[in-house]
Amino acid sequence: MENYITIEMLEENRPLLIGRIFTEMQLSILKKKLQKKPLNSNEKTYYYKFIKPKIRAMMAFFNINELNVNGKEFIKEQRSEEAIQIVHKLEQKHKGKKIILSGSFLFNKTYNDVDVFIFSKYDKEDYQKGKIHVTFLPESNLGSLFFNSLSKISVSNFNYTAKTEFDIGLNSVLQTYELLINAILNKEDHEKNLRDFILQTEYISKGVVLNPKQLYYTQEKLSRKNLDILSNTFINSLTLSYTAKTLKTKLKAQVNDYKKLLIEYKNAKNLPIYIDTYSKVISLAN
Q: Which of 43, 87, 121, 181 has the fewest CB atoms within 10 Å, i.e. is most exposed?
């Protein structure tokens, strides 16, 4: 609930709040809470018994839900209420944290886990309790392509402004592709790699930030395809997204480096794929 109020809002509206809604002391305690300073036992009593109920009542009066529900048209009946209950429950355990629930639980008939992401300033270990899979992310991820995708169909306890423009450099895209190929060749879990690959290629080639449902079904299709399909998807995305000069300069150097490595590592399975893919991009860029 505190995520809807800022210290600036309190200061700006102080003359209206004092005496009419809050006492001087209550406003001081609320400000302290927003600053994330520890409250003593007396202050906690005032906050939870008097201050928080007033804020909740004001929000209800103006039909403001404590939680944001995005993409309601995609969320299956009853899943929205379940998601709200899950977020509220996690709020009790992770007080003051920004929490967002997204993924196939909201829009698909069948699902494996309920994906919940909690933003924290400190590194914490992810955990799973029953069907609920909690992943901790740094707050810097709020500006990422991934977050802006998952937030399109989600339930969260904080406000945010969705981004529509992202700077996806060629080096980042190449790294994402290579990590995906390596994970597949090594028979490792590559769900996250494929997710990042799809989000990036769709964005750089079409300027589209996929919502979780679009991402889910695209991921389902591509996970059943072979490496040639992935590489062709990648080739088309690169040629549509970057200038011929940029592609030729970068990829010719990459191809030369990998050809030298292939002499030393003759049994490497990934290098021939990189060389073939990048050579095709260079050919199309000419």
A: 121
